[in-house]
Automatic annotation (TrEMBL), chain A:
It catalyses: ATP + protein L-histidine = ADP + protein N-phospho-L-histidine. The lineage of its organism: Bacteria, Pseudomonadati, Pseudomonadota, Alphaproteobacteria, Hyphomicrobiales. It comes from the Bacteria. Residues 213-463 form the Histidine kinase domain. Its EC number is 2.7.13.3. Residues 465-606, 629-757 form the CheW-like domain. Keywords: Kinase, Phosphoprotein, Transferase, Two-component regulatory system. This is Chemotaxis protein CheA.
Length: 896, 158
């Protein structure tokens, strides 16, 4: 690209950014002549340069905008309309500049629309008192004259900013440029084109990939700076080595000069780092404009406060956080802040505030985006997290508010009920987090309902120098970036922290959480020739590491110290090893590999097996969640092929002493919790053991329990329960793929009546003479559908399940006989209340009993439920309650 | 190499200087134009999970050098005399490598015209990296093609 054109693009883009900000300020403070002068001068400079370079489209636009601003200067009242128009003109100029940058040619086209509007407003503007005749005809020459007049007397009230050209320079440029360019301005771009064509084709590609030329406000080639930085890094390393050597020789004559060299190096390093530093304000520059546009679009009043704009951070980091910041500010404006009416009702000032602040904190930059809006909607997030299968109810209950709020960073998570042009497209905070993760940063959210929310981004100052923890594994040292290290735990055989094992998988109990562990030595395959002794297996230092939302422990043999290192790229021969992100030279001169926590997390993900942990009550709980999955208990019975049953149906896992199994009346029984519990075998191949322990799955309902005899309990896994092949075998629902293995899914409804012949009959008696009544079960959560369907079936109902209210209405309309409906309340799309109303509204179904299932059974909700026509309201986990309610409702239906 | 020979002005008289090295009982020659330096191996850092030929990485005057175990590369048995290996520093595509060898010998000037092609029955692993053989007094010198030595195939996709 032509140097002249490149310069022009860089400068103009920067000037335009300033104009954006200044215009918004000006609109708020229309009497501030200084701001106006500033804007005027910038636009004028752009106009002048465009004319000089022969860019007629840009010149015409800038000119028209300038004319209108000239009116403001003459005292015309500033209207929002006019400012909007000028801003859109600036947008157009930017668009043209973009194309110019890509094609090195001003794109063809007309801007009559904008120019006409600008001229119309300029014309409509009342003449400023004195002489109407002069102002009235807004012909171009007149305006130009007017502006050039003011130009001469222009006095700068501040030093030039980068990207601004002083008028003197511009004048000089005009004078020094040879004549022909003036007379034939169209030559400039074509000259630029020729120059570009002459350059190698490769350069073009460079231009494109090379970020946007216009966005770099450092006038030194960035590559030069990068190179300088590399050289300084080398220097620092060499200095470290020299210092190490001198340390060993007590009275070396090198000591003094080396000290001096050391100081100079430190200063040099600092200096070079500084050249890479840019104020964060550069990334904020566009925000006032964006907020203004949003405010107009959303009909909100928004004030944007910015603190600490001069906080500096690495250019590379800055580039990467620009977009996330913009996104978060948009979010705050759109979701966070209420409309003026809502704010008034809440007793808040009509104008909402978004506060951006940046400051240093211990080697990190903290950026906060806070608003005083409504805060995050915890209930909505909960519902969304449930419906998208990120957690199940049981897990959700244990989470505190802050943990729930963190779900907004999960992929594809958006609670915005309607998609606006501003946000709610489902690509939201997860993208933000990814970007921030990339630079080793973290993002956190704090929210107080009705008082607002704030996002806290923590990012490292620079990417080139990393603080690491030096550890030892298998006799070698490794560096772990400290950013991902949360804490260090020393595990010892007889201490509180001890490495435990679940089926060969090492875990650590840490503050009531189960932390998966991975031994660095084994991960790096450095332990091939040694057998881990029992003692060794329980000891070690555990580096608790966090990557994204995954927390795990890396077990190392020793921990040394922390050291600031300069990351050097690995040899191409080693780059395929995902466990390392690079290597470096330590102060003592040795090379050390830098561990990539992301690589370890990935390796862990593929080796990890689901872990089960028995708690005091004997119930089995599952840790960790996955998308849209069901917890399945995998076991073997009779054959080597795995079998599975939804974990939610299993009350307990037991291992009983085989000698306690008694036989009575041809049936096997065991005394269990003071009752006789019948034992049922999954199939005839299962041998009930006569010695040792016998594993059992215990199912309880209504105070009665049965034990299902199995050979071995294998695992608890999270997987999609998708029965692909149905089965003819009684007791088997069909086969599904569970963790890559074809697995038989056991039908509990078959075994319950075998244990107690009256298990179903008791219910039938209550229900009435109809053996099976048909029930429609509406729930968006696959988990609940899987959990409750067998229960309902066992209670003697023919169950039809649908995932949403719309599907349910379709089933009802199809004319199928449905005796009773059980529905969830919180569902995406149509919720339970609306669904009930829709059912009641249809004469064909208006008497259909509907039972609501809900996580919230507050009196208010129940009252509301009754009002819309729910016949009963049952808590989601209250299985006996649900059966009772069904009994009652269907009996009533019978009577009616 | 064959084509290079033809392109030279006076093929019969082209003298190439070789740095000779010993690996086990065998003498090898590396074109001196490719040799950056020769150094004693100190403090080698193992790289777990790397290809077996890669002995590790080391610091050579502030540069990180990838060390290649030439015995492994050529399929020779491990060295058992307990002496420290030497390394030949080589540069390729902007990266530094160190080829670990037993000992370094003298520099020989040999005419390219006396270089003979590999014997057909040469061990496959040797033949792959050899650019021919020179008959010297009492022994043979196998010329190593540096680029082929470094081309170990990008094992395991990144």
């Amino acid at each position: 690209m032509d140097d002249l054109l490149r310069e022009f693009l860089t400068e103009t883009n920067e000037s335009l950014d300033v104009v954006d900000v200044e215009l918004v300020r000006f609109e708020q403070d229309p009497n501030n002549a200084k701001i106006l002068d500033n804007i005027f001068r910038l636009v004028h400079t752009i106009k002048g340069t465009c004319g000089f370079l022969g860019l007629p489209r840009l010149e015409a636009l800038a000119h028209a905008a300038e004319t209108l601003m000239g009116k403001f200067r003459d005292g015309t009242a500033v209207t929002g309309e006019a400012v909007t128009l000028i801003l859109s003109t600036i947008d157009r100029i930017k668009a043209i500049l973009d194309e110019l940058e890509q094609n090195q040619e001003e794109p063809a086209g007309e801007d009559r629309d904008l120019i006409d509007e600008l001229e119309r407003l300029a014309l409509a503007a009342p003449a400023p008192a004195a002489d109407p005749v002069i102002a009235a005809p807004p012909t171009a020459p007149a305006a130009a004259e007017e502006t050039s007049g003011s130009l001469t007397y222009q006095v700068l009230e501040r030093p030039l900013r980068p990207g601004e050209v002083s008028l003197d320079d511009l004048e000089r440029a005009f004078r020094e440029t040879p004549g022909p360019k003036f007379t034939a301005p169209a030559e400039a771009p074509s000259a630029a084109k020729a120059a570009a064509a002459a350059a190698a084709a490769g350069e073009r590609d460079d231009d494109k990939t090379d970020a946007k030329v216009a966005n770099q406000s450092i006038r030194v080639n960035v590559e030069t700076l990068e190179h300088l930085m590399t050289m300084v890094s080398e220097l620092v390393l060499t200095r470290n080595q020299l210092l190490e050597i001198v340390r060993r020789h007590e009275d070396s004559e090198f000591k003094v000069p080396l000290q001096r060299l050391s100081n100079v190096t430190a200063e040099l390093q600092e200096g070079v780092m500084k050249t890479r530093m840019q104020p964060i304000g550069n990334a904020w520059q566009k925000l006032p404009r964006i907020v203004r546009d949003l405010a107009t679009e959303l009909n909100k009043q928004i004030e944007l406060e910015m603190h600490g704009a001069d906080t500096e951070l690495d250019r590379q980091v800055l580039d990467l956080i620009k977009d996330p910041l913009t996104h978060m500010v948009r979010n705050s404006a759109d979701h966070g802040l209420e409309t003026p009416a809502e704010r008034r009702a809440l007793g808040k000032p009509e104008k909402g505030t978004i506060r951006l602040s940046a400051y240093h904190e211990g080697g990190h930059i903290i950026i906060e985006i806070a608003d005083d809006g409504r805060g995050l909607n915890t209930e909505k997030i909960k519902a969304k997290a449930l419906s998208s299968g990120l957690v199940n109810e049981a897990q959700l209950e244990k989470l505190n508010e802050q943990q729930i709020h963190k779900f907004i960073f999960a992929p594809g998570f958006s609670t915005a009920s309607k998609v606006t042009s501003v946000s709610g497209r489902g690509v939201g905070m997860d993208v933000v987090r990814n970007n921030i993760d990339q630079i080793g940063g973290t993002v956190d959210v704090k929210s107080v309902a009705c008082a607002g929310s704030s996002f806290i981004i923590k990012i490292p100052l620079t990417l080139a120098i990393v603080s690491t923890l030096i550890v030892e594994a298998g006799g070698d040292r490794f560096a772990i970036p400290q950013l991902s290290v949360i804490e260090l735990v020393r595990a010892q055989t007889n201490s509180e922290h001890r490495i435990e094992r679940i089926k060969d998988t090492p875990v650590l109990r840490l503050r009531n959480k189960l932390l998966p562990l991975i031994r660095l030595k084994s991960l790096l395959k450095m332990d091939e020739n040694e057998i881990v002794s029992g003692d060794d297996a329980e000891n070690g230092f555990i580096v608790v590491t966090q990557v994204g939302n995954q927390t795990f422990g890396i077990v190392v043999d020793g921990v040394f110290h922390t050291e600031e290192i300069v990351v050097k790229p690995m040899s191409t021969k080693l780059r395929h090893i995902s466990m390392f992100s690079g290597n470096t030279i330590l102060g003592d001169g040795s090379v050390i590999m830098i561990i990539d926590p992301n690589g370890i997390a990935r390796a862990l993900g593929t080796t990890a097996t689901a872990q089960a942990q028995s708690e005091e009550n004997g119930a089995v709980q599952h840790h960790g969640g996955a998308d849209n999955t069901t917890s399945l208990l995998v076991f073997r019975a009779g054959s080597p092929e795995p079998k599975a049953v939804p974990l939610s149906l299993v009350t307990r896992l037991e291992e009983i002493d085989a000698t306690k199994i008694e036989a009575s009346n041809g049936r096997r029984l065991v005394q269990y919790r003071g009752q006789l519990m019948p034992l049922v075998r999954v199939n005839d191949e299962v041998q009930i053991r006569t010695e040792g322990t016998q594993p059992l799955l215990v199912f309880s309902d209504d105070g009665r329990s049965m034990g299902l005899v199995v050979d071995e309990i294998v695992d608890i896994v999270e997987d999609n329960l998708n029965i692909e092949v149905s089965s003819e075998t009684p007791g088997v629902l069909g086969s599904a793929v569970v963790k890559g293995h074809a697995t038989e899914i056991i039908d509990m409804g078959y075994f319950l009546p075998i244990a107690f012949e009256d298990w179903l009959r008791r219910k039938d008696k209550a229900v009435g003479s109809h053996v099976s009544r048909s029930l429609l079960f509406v729930d968006d959560s696959a988990f609940f559908r899987n959990m409750l369907t067998p229960v309902l079936k066992a209670a003697g109902y023919q169950v039809t399940t649908v995932p949403g209210a719309a599907d349910a209405l379709e089933v009802l309309k199809s004319g199928r006989r449905i005796d009773v409906v059980v529905t969830d309340i919180d569902m995406p799309g149509m919720n339970g209340f609306d669904f009930a109303q829709a059912v009641q509204a249809d004469p064909a179904t208006k008497d259909l009993p509907i039972i609501a299932l809900s996580a919230l059974t507050s009196p208010d909700a129940i009252e509301r439920g009754r009002a819309v026509g729910f016949h009963d309201f049952v808590a989601k986990f209250d299985r006996p309650g649900l059966i009772a309610a069904l009994k009652e409702q269907t009996a009533l239906g019978e009577a009616a | 190499m064959e084509t290079k020979m033809v392109n030279d002005n006076n093929p019969s008289d082209t003298l190439i200087e070789y740095v000779t090295v010993m690996l086990g009982e065998q003498l090898f020659g590396l074109p001196i134009s490719r040799v950056q330096d020769v150094f004693m191996l100190e403090r080698l850092t193992r790289v777990p999970l790397s290809q077996p030929e890669i002995a590790g990485v080391l610091n050579l005057r502030g540069r990180i050098v990838t060390a290649i175990d030439m015995r492994r590369r050529l399929g020779l048995p491990k060295r058992d005399d307990g002496k420290k290996p030497m390394a030949i520093g080589i540069e390729s595509k902007g990266e530094s490598y160190g080829l670990l060898i037993d000992t370094v010998g003298e520099v020989l000037k040999l005419s390219d015209s006396t270089r003979e092609p590999n014997p057909v029955n040469l061990d496959g692993r040797l033949a792959r990296v050899s650019a021919g053989v020179h008959r010297l007094d009492g022994q043979l010198l196998v010329v190593l093609d540096v680029d082929r030595v470094l081309d170990m195939g990008e094992a395991i996709a990144a």
